[in-house]
Specification:
This protein is an alpha/beta fold and about 475 residues long. The chain is built from 16 helices and 11 strands. The strands form 2 sheets. It has a 7-stranded mixed sheet, sandwiched between helices. The longest helix is centred in the last third of the chain and has 35 residues, at about 360-395.
């Protein structure tokens, strides 16, 4: 009995149905609750306990269950009322690029395994570097270059490994961690920095959390210098500093020029994490946030957050690609080939932790060509303007306060009340099903976050979010 493979004609018919389903989903997004209300286990209990055995099922049956079982259990990240965490938005061109990538099914671990997969990615990373006006040394035409990682977390891990290679003068490749190495970031640095330190063998205790300015929430250079000098005096080796452009809690911007000068003085690898806010640099008026990037040994941002490219797509650059490849390359006999040994090609397997890699550059190519630079700038500027509109509403109500600067599209705010009242406000508003916000702590206080980014979000959705918040506050006892 032969396997029931889908023929090209069957695929064509099913593909039309799936594209129609996605288009209908987007068209009706605003009519859905942003988050599900059902208890844990609801989706699992509605699914069969085993797969089909004899005979397959038509795509129509799968789509029916998608509507009946899966979609009601989703948090709709593309919803115009989704304001939680950071944006993780896709777009029509991105979905189409991903579809082509899936259809091609190529494996891009080596140039030789699919040359166009590698070369398109190299060019796309240079396009992005041009759009963001990154330093020339990050371009592939110089000593550096870029690669697409799955996430900023992976970028931080790769940067940490390269930093250890430099700090140990190559010893760690053979001997592992043979002394105490240190990583440094602000108290608002992303959790992936600690995870990278654990994976790399530094341990969570190997990360030095540096104090921030109480007003700007940005890392204090003097505190960084003091920590480095204390570690050197103790015989420890400073390996990497991770500066952040747009911290997760408040989108604070660390002073990269001052941090970079300190790293240069002590010979420490500087990685700049701009996972969310890096997209803003497509707009010339927002490039102030990237001052000092000429000091960076590596830099990353996520087009899959605010640049309309579906997850997963992190853009990661290094100033010296030879240093990165030397740190990570492993070449078994079965991967040897003439192109690699010629030294004339890039093998991206040497720029990441896994061996295999998807053709992610296709969705980026589709997005950049569909929107163009001005289209992307319009999207970013819309998000910034909508966030400013919301912040104006907050400031106009004496019951509320904005608790941090909002240079991008995130607003951090709270009731002038205790933490429990603010938590109750968040639960009440999210319970409406019309919007979804998340929270953090700023200066120890429970704080609400509203992050704009969905392509369908308009002024009407911002105003609705404010009306819900204001009405909920009316019903809360404010101490």
């Amino acid at each position: 009995m032969s396997a029931p493979h889908m023929s090209p004609d069957e695929f064509r018919r099913a593909g039309y149905a799936v594209i129609d389903w996605i288009a209908d989903y987007w068209a009706t997004m605003d009519q859905r609750p942003v988050t599900p209300a059902d208890p844990p286990g609801t989706v699992a209990s509605a699914l069969p306990t085993a797969p089909p055995t004899v005979g397959g099922e038509p795509v129509e049956a799968v789509l029916a269950d998608l509507d009946a079982i899966v979609v009601p259990g989703l948090t709709h990240w593309q919803h115009p009322g989704f304001f939680g965490y950071f944006p993780a938005n896709t777009s029509g061109p991105s979905v189409l690029g991903d579809l082509v990538s899936s259809g091609l099914g190529v494996q891009g671990m080596l140039w030789a395994t699919s040359p166009a997969c590698t070369e398109l990615e190299t060019v796309m990373m240079d396009w992005l570097a041009h759009l963001l006006d990154l330093p020339k040394r990050f371009h592939s035409t110089g000593s550096g270059g870029g690669v697409i990682q799955d996430s900023a977390s992976s970028a931080t891990l790769v940067a940490t490994l390269a930093a250890l290679h430099r700090a140990s003068r190559g010893r760690w490749r053979e001997n592992g961690i043979d002394r105490r190495y240190r990583a440094y970031t602000s108290t608002h640095g992303h959790s992936s920095i600690e995870k990278a330190a654990r994976i790399a063998g530094l341990g969570a205790d190997g990360v030095r959390s540096i104090d921030v300015d109480p007003d700007s929430q940005a890392l204090l250079p003097a505190a960084l210098r003091a920590a480095i000098e204390a570690d050197l005096a103790a015989g420890d080796i400073p390996a990497i500093v991770v500066a952040t452009i747009g911290t997760t809690s408040t989108t604070a911007v660390d002073p990269v020029p001052e941090i970079g000068a300190i790293c240069a003085e002590y010979g420490i690898w500087l990685h700049v994490d701009a996972a969310y806010a890096g997209s803003a640099a497509v707009c010339p008026e927002l490039r102030w946030s990237h001052a000092g990037l000429e000091y960076a040994d590596s830099y990353c941002f996520d087009p899959h957050k605010w640049l309309l490219t579906g997850f997963d797509c992190d853009a990661f650059w290094v100033a010296d690609r030879a240093e990165l490849v030397e740190a990570l390359t492993v070449l078994p006999e079965f991967l040897r080939n003439a192109a690699t040994e010629s030294g004339a090609v890039i093998d991206y397997r040497d720029w990441q932790v896994p061996l295999g890699r998807r053709f992610r550059a296709l969705k980026l190519w589709f997005v950049l060509r569909w929107y163009g630079a001005e289209g992307l700038r319009a999207h970013i500027r819309s998000g910034v303007a909508l966030a400013a509109r919301f912040a104006e509403r907050v400031r106009a109500d004496d019951r509320f306060e904005v608790v941090a600067a909002h240079p991008f599209s995130l607003v951090c705010f709270r009731l002038r009340a205790d933490d429990d009242t603010n938590a109750a406000l968040l639960a009440e508003v999210n319970g409406s099903g019309r919007v979804h916000l998340t929270h953090t702590r700023v200066a120890g206080r429970y704080t609400l976050r509203l992050a704009v980014g969905a392509p369908q979000t308009t002024e009407a959705h911002i105003d609705e979010a404010w009306r819900l918040l204001s009405a909920a506050a009316d019903n809360l006892p404010i101490p």
